[in-house]
Amino acid sequence: MEKTSSEQSPKKIRSAISFAISAILFIVALVVFFLALQAKKENRPITVFGRFFSIVVTDSMEPEIKVGDLIVVKITDMNEVKVGDNAVFINLSDEKIKGERVVHEVIEIGTDEKGLYFITKGINNLIEDKDRVYADNFVGVEVGHSTFWGKFFGFFTRIENLILLVVLLFAIPFAVKQIKKIIVYSKEAAVETAAEEKAEPCGESISTDNDRNDENE
Hints:
- The structure is a single chain.
- This protein has helices at residues 5-41, 147-156, 159-199, 209-216, and strands at 47-48, 51-55, 70-74, 86-90, 101-112, 115-121, 138-146.
- The chain is of the alpha+beta class.
- It has 2 domains: 9-44 and 158-197, no CATH class; 49-145, Umud Fragment, subunit A.
- It has a 7-stranded antiparallel sheet with strand order 1-2-3-7-4-5-6.
């Protein structure tokens, strides 16, 4: 029996919504990937409305900020920073992370011949940072962080994960369609089998009077 247009309509709507959501997720992932790639190439953050986002790669601020967390950094003036704020700055001396952005707590503020400076320390570190933070390597202040969004954006900034997403966007709808077909075919086969069993004649024998007479003899 063919389905009417009214029965097919909800399925078409659900299919269209599913496709639209998948397409939006793919476009977002693609934009995030290329923006991150361009920013990394130019050694600059992706800035939106005076804020930018960065992924934490060390454990110096644990347990407050964990490795892999996404931090929101507000670009601000050094004069607005207070002791206890988490300053984001460019590391200039540590060979392992030289040139990388670092987020550490401001434990002291002062001035010298170079001007205003911060003394910073990772809350998970035993000692303070050996270099002072000045205006030339100060970036901004951390105003928020998220483990969930860190994992989300961290996932989509890897090329292998982006390729996996593309494959899944095409593979999942196909797999779901095939599973639905298998279920339909299984139900139809079960109905046919039940109908055949019902149509078969009863296998029990019916004795007649002649048979009983023969047995008595």
